[in-house]
Amino acid sequence: MVQKVNATRGMRDFLPAEKARRERALNIIREVYRSHGFTEIEAPAVEDFGRLHSGLGGDNEKLSFSILKRGLTGQDLSDAAAAESTDSLTDLGLRFDLTVPLARYYATNRAQLPGVFRAIHIGPVWRAERPQRGRYRQFVQSDIDIIGEGSALAEAELITATSQALDALGLQDCAIRVNDRRILTELLNHCGFSEEEHAAALITVDKLDKIGAEGVVAELAEQNPEAADEIGRVLARFEQAGATVAGGAPLNAEAIAAVLPEGVASEAAAHLDELAQAVTPGLPAGVTLCFDPTLVRGMGYYTGTIFEIAHPGSGSSVGGGGRYDGMIGRFLGEDVPAVGFSIGFERIMELVELPSSSDAEVVALISDKDLPAFQLLALKRELLDAGKTVRIVWRQKNMKALLSNLAAEGVTHTAAVRAETAGAADLEIRPLAG
RNA sequence: GUGGCUAUAGCUCAGUCGGUAGAGCAUCGGCUUGUGGUGCCGAGGGUCGCGGGUUCAAGUCCCGUUAGCCACCCCA
């Protein structure tokens, strides 16, 4: 090797065996989503820069890859330098999630879509993060969304379909934590935080499991001591109700009322209760549902219900979503309710164990060296016509290594080809033991 | 974006106190073996991630850089 070559930072190559494993998992997920009445769409990886930076993507906007305009001149560069902004140099960007493109897609194609649209949207997204395990710069998200349904039916269908997909992948011990943005907003108002203080306060509350209630209160006291004291009392109430420990509080009206202060978010609580009643009876054994009043989620576009999938085998969340009723109105000029649920495909793949399926018969023709191509292709055609999958390899000295490599690559049978082999009838097709 | 750890042959790794690199597997060749899983002998393959510096001498010490991993941050 002349020089070390790598795939681009944070992006990966997949060898055939891993690619096959990913495709199998993806097909399982698609199958479940389809059976729940969702239909698959595709949208471009590139979106308009302005749409990606409309303030809806939260922190992810800062992580997006931008694309330079074609044919920039030195004058363009000095203009940008004078304006101290690179915005004029860029007009497109790679999508950092599938939700913003879906909202744009819906606004574009609404006339040809059903009134309540159930979409499957699977594809790569890009974020310029610092990579590590379970965190890449290119990764696949697997989303389902329901557009045009404002009732808890939408959340219930999404959570049910996603739970079934996790179950079909063989995952156990998944916990779906649920909360509502309106609950968070009312809690902060109740404590006495001003609108401007909300964003920073939410980030702090989100750290509860890491820095504890004292840590949260101490951090918030820096900007608003009185409200921080009040939130300390609220958090104490959460703890008393068991809502802050793993597993959280049950998701029903009584438990929610027990956790929240008097008069806070009764509308949102009723919405959560309704969706829990619809979902719980059909929940697979490997998935539990709970109410977590401290669940925040960073995306700026959520307006109502929010949820997140946790799994003990993963340090970070393996999925998430929520209601974003305001976003489509940005593109369409008319508000349309919408909810989405995303599975973090890369993180799921680190948890699932899939059997190496493929019951198809894969035959390797092991040919003596230097047999003519016409002889080998004639044999291959005969076997293909008989419905087999065929691969041609040359005989090599170390048969042990050859055979075990073939087995690892999914070959199930072998047949020796010699100069005197006239047709498939002369082949002795033998099963290959791993 | 911040901090820490790591980088040696195609792969997995060893390399002590600084003295210009080794093993196993893989590859290739010869012989052996019942031409389908054997055994023996031999060969090729490395500017030690990259770029600087210290030194008579650097894989080894120092600085920078790139990539991976880990903890933050954030999230899928």
Description:
The chain has 434 residues and is α/β, with parallel strands linked by helices. Helices cover 39% and strands 19% of the residues. An eight-stranded mixed sheet has the order 1-5-6-11-10-9-7-8, sandwiched between helices. Strands 13-12-14-15 form a four-stranded mixed sheet, covered by helices on one side. Strands 2-4-3 form a three-stranded antiparallel sheet. α6 crosses α9. The chain is globular and about 90 Å long. The structure holds one RNA strand of 76 nucleotides.
Present the secondary structure layout:
Blueprint (H helix, E strand, L loop, with lengths): L15 H20 L3 E3 L4 E3 H4 L13 E3 L5 H10 L6 E5 L4 H11 L7 E10 L11 E10 L4 H17 L5 E7 H11 L3 H11 L2 H14 L3 H16 L12 H7 L6 H14 L7 E5 L13 E6 L8 E5 L3 H6 L5 E7 H5 L12 E6 L5 H13 L3 E6 L4 H10 L4 E5 L12 E2 L3
Parallel strand pairs: 1-5, 7-8, 12-13, 12-14
Antiparallel strand pairs: 2-4, 3-4, 5-6, 6-11, 7-9, 9-10, 10-11, 14-15
The structure holds one RNA strand of 76 nucleotides.
CATH class of the largest domain: Alpha Beta
CA-atom Rg in angstroms: 27 Å
| Annotated CATH topology of the largest domain | BirA Bifunctional Protein, domain 2
What is the strand tally? 15
Strand order of the largest sheet: 1-5-6-11-10-9-7-8
Name of the CATH architecture of the largest domain: 2-Layer Sandwich
N- to C-terminal distance = 32 Å
What order do the SSEs take from the amino end to the carboxyl end, as H and E? HEEHEHEHEEHEHHHHHHEEEHEHEHEHEE
Mind describing the biggest β-sheet?
8 strands, mixed
Tally of individual domains: 2
Shape, principal axes of CA atoms: globular
User: Strand pairing plus helix content: what structural class?
Assistant: alpha/beta
In CATH terms, the superfamily of the largest domain is Bira Bifunctional Protein, Domain 2
Beta-strand content bin: 15-25%
